[in-house]
Design a protein that fits this description.
The chain is α+β, with helices and mostly antiparallel strands and about 400 residues long. Helix content is about 50%, strand content about 20%.
């Protein structure tokens, strides 16, 4: 019996209300006096409890021969009401808490401590990468990642590594950063550093001293990813150009202007290689598509956006590339979202992407913002409407 009282309290009953409810189930149409006697709730409190239960709709009161008789609602009615109300509560909490989570924790900053944990995270990032890796660090850590770099390269990932010191990584794009006395002094006082950006999607920034004092930050925050990636690639480009200029000065060519033109084209080629996707890389995404039910994905997204309000209205059309080659439209309204197959209306914004990427976005495995710099989403039309897409895709 005690467990029943406790379970009733879990769904909103007070202890005395639980006792009175059970008592009136056992002896319906009881007076207040009888409810007090059977339940064990003192007479001084039982009428207050009965009045509270009446306000909550848990019992009915009838009069018979100048006596008030109490009968509680049947358990099946009580529990059905509770299921409905709790379902609404859970749905509202899920919706509202998710909105709060997006504002505060959508792209968390994760702190790591200890050299082994940092290297473990770095290895995981390299193994998961599929397109591009930017790395910057010292030989002590870079050499610990050598096997992972080589394995990723053999799988088709292109890597650009800036090393503060010599490393021997055959067939990898390694650039050497010159070491000055001031740089060595900085290492002695503050430790080495390691920066790793994979697929322009996640970043690891570490300050490495001894095993315990090593600290790092990992995040998928687009601002941090873009900043770190830009810093590494700018540094690589700068030292690449400076090394080539030094070679030109040492060779003393008859026509340095021609050599500088060649250098400009080499530098442009390096930059394009670091930031653009090759055609075969784009095809690789298409080839790895898996079968899935688009209808279920759209239903999931409609449920996710049910009850949302948007500060913009319009029609977003998504053209799927690859095997599917289907068209869907997202009709964005002030108080909801409708998904329809085909191009029924003239769209305000047009997107083109692979089904695999769409699946990753809707299921929450792939941030929409991560696709834009990787040229896996083609977009044209009203770019103001594009601002609402991250909210829709969640």
């Amino acid at each position: 019996m005690d467990s029943t009282y406790k379970d009733l309290q879990k769904i909103g009953f007070t202890e005395n209300e639980a006792r009175v409810y059970v008592a009136l189930l056992e002896k319906p149409d009881s007076t207040g006096y009888e409810a007090s006697r059977v339940s064990g709730v003192p007479r001084a409190k039982v009428y207050e409890v009965l009045a509270s239960m009446e306000r909550k709709g848990l019992l009915m009161v009838t009069s018979k021969e100048d006596r008030q008789l109490y009968r509680v609602i049947p358990p099946e009615v009580l529990l059905e009401n509770q299921k409905r109300e709790m379902g609404e509560v859970i749905y509202n909490l899920e919706t509202n808490l998710k909105k709060m989570e997006k504002k505060d924790q959508e792209e968390p900053m994760v702190s790591l401590q200890g050299r082994e944990k940092v290297l473990e995270m770095a290895r995981t990032m390299v193994k998961k990468s599929g397109v591009r890796i930017f790395a910057c660090g010292w030989p002590e850590e870079l050499q610990m990642l050598e096997k992972d770099f080589i394995s990723a390269s053999q799988s088709g990932t292109r890597e650009y590594i800036l090393s503060f010191g010599e490393v021997d990584f055959p067939n990898l794009n390694v650039f050497q950063h010159p070491i000055s006395p001031m740089l060595l002094l900085r290492v002695i006082t503050t430790g080495r550093w390691l920066t790793l950006v994979t697929d322009n999607r996640e970043v690891l920034i570490a300050q490495i001293q001894d095993k315990q004092k090593t600290r790092a930050l990992w995040t998928k925050n687009p601002a941090v990813v873009q900043t770190a990636g830009g810093w590494v690639t700018n540094d690589i480009s700068f030292h690449f150009v400076m090394q080539k200029i030094q070679e030109i000065i040492q060779d003393k060519p008859k026509d340095p202007g021609e050599r500088l033109k060649e250098l400009r084209e080499e530098a442009r080629g390096l930059w394009r290689g670091m930031w653009s996707l090759e055609e075969n890389e784009t095809e690789a995404f298409e080839e790895t598509e898996t079968d899935f039910d688009l209808g279920e994905l759209w239903e999931k997204m409609e449920r996710r956006n049910s009850g949302k309000s948007f500060n913009q209205s319009g029609i977003v059309q998504i053209n799927l590339k690859g095997k599917e080659q289907k068209t869907w439209q997202l009709i964005i309204k002030p108080f909801g979202l409708e998904v329809v197959e085909g191009g029924r209306e003239k769209p305000d914004l047009l997107l083109e992407m692979f089904p695999k990427d769409l699946q990753g976005i809707i299921e929450g495995d792939l941030p929409f913002n991560a696709l834009l710099p990787r040229i896996r989403v083609m977009i044209e039309g009203d770019f103001e409407l594009a601002r609402v897409l991250p909210e829709i895709f969640g």
